[in-house]
């Protein structure tokens, strides 16, 4: 950046000013606070947000919570892991996506075209390391020499690495098998795996259908922050920035609604996933925390850097990754009022 002695206001270009104005208007419209009369509400009717969703998550949540009446069009694209979300964002095929800190970490290492704009707080008790019911495995140390499934570059990769290290082991001490969640469930069913590090519904199915035993959960090994990923082109576009700001507030209201209306949300999830409502309720009853959507702050970025440093120490990364440049705080203002409201 060139040196200058001009006042800061002289450095703001027209697009930045327009973007700030639109973001402020979006906040005012969704937070119920009147905008300045001189600032017209942006016309978002021609905007389409291409939003990545997982089966049974954002699409079902937004609809069930009554937050789907948006002034812009949402084009949902179902992608079943964070790596695919980031690949789609990097290829300009999505505007918004989500996942864990782990794909975001690899994105930072690869200097992918993606930004992280907020974090969802989610349950960590559904991130589990499981043993087959008939396997002679009672603790993580017993995984030595065993066939252990996991999903590369996901939370299961990270927490399994940390759990192994805590037990004095590494990936070199086990027969680590990288499988998609669906393939992992099939392999677990066939007896091709002795243990499995997995997240979400598949772990629940393994427990209920195949009698799997939980060795450890992700609680204490994961931060609980699940970033919302964004396309930098969309963040830099004033109208899309305003639409994203509106979407984030709707999503946060939807999550807070789900905390108090989980049966209704579970029914919407079940309609998409075919997972029985009772199973979803059991997962919810055993949760480590309620849902929340939070803005980016120093602790979020520092926590993500800790993950990067840990992966480097474990030999998972081929070099250091600096995550701070990919975190974008331009939506902090529109999320802060809701955070304050919840604390009140």
Describe the protein's architecture and organization.
With 344 residues, the chain is of the alpha/beta class. It has 2 domains: 236 residues, D-Maltodextrin-Binding Protein, domain 2 (3-Layer(aba) Sandwich), CATH 3.40.190; 91 residues, Periplasmic binding protein-like II (D-Maltodextrin-Binding Protein, domain 2, 3-Layer(aba) Sandwich). Helix content is 45%, strand content 16%. Strands 7-6-8-5-9 form a 5-stranded mixed β-sheet, with helices on both faces. Strands 3-10-4-11 form a 4-stranded antiparallel β-sheet, with helices on both faces. Helix 3 links the parallel strand 1 and strand 2. The protein starts with 7 loop residues before the first helix and ends with a helix. The N terminus and C terminus are likely disordered.
Order of adjacent strands in the largest pleated sheet: 7-6-8-5-9
Overall shape: globular
Structural class: alpha/beta
Straight-line distance between termini: 41 Å
Number of helices, where a helix is a run of at least 4 consecutive DSSP H or I residues: 14
Rg from C-alpha positions?
Answer: 21 Å
Helix content: 40-55%
What fold name stands as the CATH topology of the largest domain?
D-Maltodextrin-Binding Protein, domain 2
CATH architecture of the largest domain: 3-Layer(aba) Sandwich
Percentage beta strand = 15-25%
Q: Write the element-wise H/E pattern from the N-terminal end onward.
A: HHEHEHEHEEEHEHEHEEHHHHEHH
CATH superfamily of the largest domain: Periplasmic binding protein-like II
Q: Average pLDDT value? A: 87
List low-confidence stretches.
Answer: 1-37, 338-344
């Amino acid at each position: 950046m060139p040196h200058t002695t001009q006042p800061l206001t002289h450095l703001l270009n027209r697009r930045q000013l327009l973007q700030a104005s639109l973001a402020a208007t979006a906040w005012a419209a969704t937070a119920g606070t009147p905008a300045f009369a001189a600032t017209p509400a942006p016309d978002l009717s021609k905007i389409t947000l291409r939003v990545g969703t997982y089966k049974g998550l954002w699409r079902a949540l937004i609809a069930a919570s009554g937050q789907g009446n948006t002034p812009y069009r949402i084009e949902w694209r179902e992608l079943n892991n964070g790596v695919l979300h980031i690949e789609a964002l990097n290829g300009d095929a999505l505007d918004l996506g989500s996942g864990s800190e782990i794909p975001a970490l690899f994105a930072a290492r690869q200097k992918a075209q993606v930004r992280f704009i907020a974090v969802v707080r989610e349950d960590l008790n559904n991130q589990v390391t499981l043993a087959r019911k008939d396997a002679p495995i009672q603790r993580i140390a017993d995984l030595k020499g065993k066939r252990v499934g996991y999903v590369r570059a996901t939370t299961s990769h990270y927490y399994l690495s940390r759990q192994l290290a805590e037990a004095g082991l590494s990936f070199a001490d086990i027969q680590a098998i990288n499988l998609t969640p669906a393939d992992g469930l099939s392999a677990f069913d066939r007896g091709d795996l002795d243990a499995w590090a997995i997240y979400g519904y598949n772990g629940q199915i393994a427990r209920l259908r195949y009698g799997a035993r939980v060795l450890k959960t992700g609680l204490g090994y994961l931060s609980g922050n699940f970033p919302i990923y964004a396309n930098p082109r969309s963040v830099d576009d004033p109208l899309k920035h305003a639409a994203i700001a509106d979407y984030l507030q709707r999503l946060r209201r939807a999550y807070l609604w789900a905390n108090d209306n989980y049966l209704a949300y579970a029914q919407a999830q079940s309609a998409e996933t075919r997972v029985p409502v009772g199973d979803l309720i059991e997962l919810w009853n055993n949760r480590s925390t309620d849902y929340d959507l939070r803005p980016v702050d120093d602790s979020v970025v520092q926590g993500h850097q800790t993950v990067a440093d840990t992966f480097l120490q474990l030999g998972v990364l081929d070099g250091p990754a600096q995550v701070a440049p990919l975190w974008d705080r331009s939506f902090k203002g529109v999320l802060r009022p809701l955070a304050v409201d919840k604390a009140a």
